[in-house]
Amino acid sequence: MTSFEHAVQLTNITVKQNDMVTIDSVTLTINKGNFAAIIGPNGAGKTTLVKVILGLIRPDSGTVKVFDRPSDELGELRSKIGYVPQIFSIDIKFPVTVFETVLMGTYGKLGVGKRVTSAEREATYQAMEKVGITDLKDRPIARLSGGQRQRAFIARALANNPDLLVLDEPTTGVDIATTGNLYALLRQLKSEGVTVLLVSHDVGVVASYIDTLACLNVSLVAHCRPGEVECTDALKSMYGCDVAFLHHGDAPHIVVEEHE
Ligand SMILES: Nc1ncnc2c1ncn2[C@@H]1O[C@H](COP(=O)(O)OP(=O)(O)OP(=O)(O)O)[C@@H](O)[C@H]1O
Ligand SMILES: [Mg+2]
Question: Number of structural domains, the chain?
């Protein structure tokens, strides 16, 4: 595993897109081994912030460090970030099978132009096994259900044994059983030392798993531990409705109260 203290350090990040500020002065640190979640309403800038972390969007100002290194000096370490993109951003017409899609996750380690060996094939089978899609390995990705496709992209992100796993709303279109399996898998990865960054609208579910919650609405409304007063207040102001944390043992759950 890569040696580092902070998986992600964002300092004063501002992003403008089409003359609109979509991220405003965000400072956020995610420590090694933490399970962090980002929540916020549609258009809050969650995907934009994820792309800044991945080096896909260059901020207009501020600094980005991943694994304690400036993001543009990551080199081969970039392949130790696993990324599951938000589902509608994926081109599903691409004519590849599930196996080939997951195998692509090993290319960072392999380098461009090198031959695939049994090690990469083995890593691909292990990743497919983890998310339960081995039986779909020869299916074209375009001929999967939404949930099956999502699992294929999660397997792709796992194939290179990432130190940082970033998932952008991975449970969209995924059934309850698979969602439960995914969260169990994320907890398992965390116990193995993987840092997990999850963008999710499942606030009620993730609250019981996560170490820190970043509430984003263009700027950072709060960065807190689920259950803290600061967190509850931030959620209330962000979603405009009453939310409460219920405690089951040590595990806080968020409850969004319905309007009359
Ligand atoms: N390529 C782009 N060019 C211009 N503006 C963009 C672009 N991508 C996103 N935006 C704008 O930036 C803002 C943040 O978008 P972003 O996709 O980061 O939101 P989000 O929090 O991920 O939303 P959602 O919950 O719907 O996924 C939105 O106002 C969006 O319209
Ligand atoms: Mg998004």
Answer: 1
